[in-house]
From TrEMBL:
The keyword Iron does not apply. This is ERO1-like protein alpha. It comes from Sinocyclocheilus rhinocerous. It is a peripheral membrane protein. Transmembrane segments: none annotated. The keyword Kinase does not apply. The active site is at 357 (nucleophile), 360. Belongs to the EROs family. It is found in: Endoplasmic reticulum membrane. FAD binds at residues 181, 183, 194, 215, 218, 250.
Amino acid sequence: MTMKSFILLALSLTSVHMTTAAGSAAHRCFCQVTGTLDDCACDVETIDRFNNKEIFPKLQKLLSSDYFRFYKVNLNNPCPFWTDHSQCGLKYCAVKPCTPGEVPEGLKSSSYKVLLSHIVYITRFVVGGFLSLNVSPCSDETRQALQEWKKHDDESDRFCMLDDVDSPESQYVDLLLNPERFTGYKGPEAWRIWNSIYEENCLCVEKRAFFRLISGLHASINIHLSARYLLDENWFEMKWGHNVSEFQLRFDKELTEGEGPKRLRNLYFLYLIELRALAKILPYFERPAFHLYTGQPTEDNEKKKLLLELLHMAKSFPLHFDETALFAGNKKEAIKLKEDFKLTFKNISRVMDCVECFKCRLWGKLQTQGLGTALKILFSERQIEAMPNTSNTNPSFQLSRQEIVSLFNAFGRISTSVRELDNFRSLLSNLKQ
Ligand SMILES: Cc1cc2nc3c(=O)[nH]c(=O)nc-3n(C[C@H](O)[C@H](O)[C@H](O)COP(=O)(O)OP(=O)(O)OC[C@H]3O[C@@H](n4cnc5c(N)ncnc54)[C@H](O)[C@@H]3O)c2cc1C
Ligand SMILES: *[C@@H]1O[C@H](CO)[C@@H](O)[C@H](O)[C@H]1NC(C)=O
Ligand SMILES: *[C@@H]1O[C@H](CO)[C@@H](O)[C@H](O)[C@H]1NC(C)=O
Ligand SMILES: *[C@@H]1O[C@H](CO)[C@@H](O)[C@H](O)[C@H]1NC(C)=O
């Protein structure tokens, strides 16, 4: 053997050796993240392709619009469950709320506009004359009527505690300026939150589905903090990016006693649930009276078009989760189960007020609210139609702006996580050991 061919052979052996080992680093996180998912006719690869190529880019575009980037939230609710909680002093936990001038004027009145258009709607199509539309849009009577209506109509459907957006404590936050990423929030405080959320599981009849949703959400949060990790910091800038070791610590099967890959599968389960909700809600947004109102008609129409494209795409997904399978069994059981889910979810949304890190609280609230909205859509018995049945006096299905914004942004987070898994998969296969 010549020296040259020896070197070549040695080189190729090393590279063979490297690929096997590299394959295994990726394999240890992704071994079970393939093939069909339990309870569903769907496989991971189909979701990956569908999400990464179609849903993800469109959704990102939608979420950067004014309607979706400004989220109104009360980050100052007291924690209802324990009093000994400290404030997180980490600077990465800070949330910068908008100054009044930063929020588009049209948006400030829009939660109310959505309701108004709905009232117009019932008035026109369903109840006929129940509310006179001659009242000026800003009069106290209108506001009061809206409030009353809002309370009655919605409470029974809801899976989540919603912040009172009219409270002076609620503020607009620009989600694009306060991205979900590594904050350094960890240790006993963070565990206490996760523990009390998982404890709710014991109270829930459908323990398995409930657990998988929460575990999927937990996985998503931990993927984001690994993908936007604070890698370096100096006087001038902070450098955020993928930290592969952090990802491995959380998802490698050998470092998590086999749990990591299962947690990633739960992320896909959550993805399917939220995707199914989007498919089901399509007719609601097809109503001519529905506007993504920010006060700029051209932009608003464009964004509504984009929203409908996205929802049609969601609907076209060939292997949808069948939510009726979740509540199988007899009708009585199903009703009990739904009630149970509701109580548990409401409690979880209150636990979010106990999260010390404001950035984590913001995204935690948004995501539980978004998931709550998805469940409300999936399990509501109200009709969700583009043209509600006019002889039906039951008020039709309704979403507030806060629910809409949280639904789409929450799905945006899960969709981004699925996209990030692709990045981690390639980063892991390039690893040297
Ligand atoms: C609501 C909320 C939002 C947060 N947002 C952020 C954020 O934006 N940025 C940030 O940097 N940190 C955030 N955190 C903190 C982060 O989630 C972790 O708690 C923290 O990084 C410490 O991680 P850990 O390795 O100790 O385990 P944790 O993630 O705290 O998990 C605790 C235990 O739960 C189990 N577990 C972990 N993952 C799963 C899963 N997917 N399914 C089932 N069980 C699981 C494991 O046994 C683990 O030991 C948030 C925490 C909470 C409660
Ligand atoms: C709500 O959560 C708190 C704190 O985890 C718990 O003490 C309480 O029992 C829960 N209540 C319900 C109805 O789930
Ligand atoms: C990446 O995460 C690991 C594990 O948490 C940590 O030890 C390491 O310092 C991080 N890397 C960087 C560049 O911050
Ligand atoms: C409309 O609602 C009425 C009363 O609930 C019902 O009898 C009728 O069948 C419905 N029509 C359609 C087209 O669903």
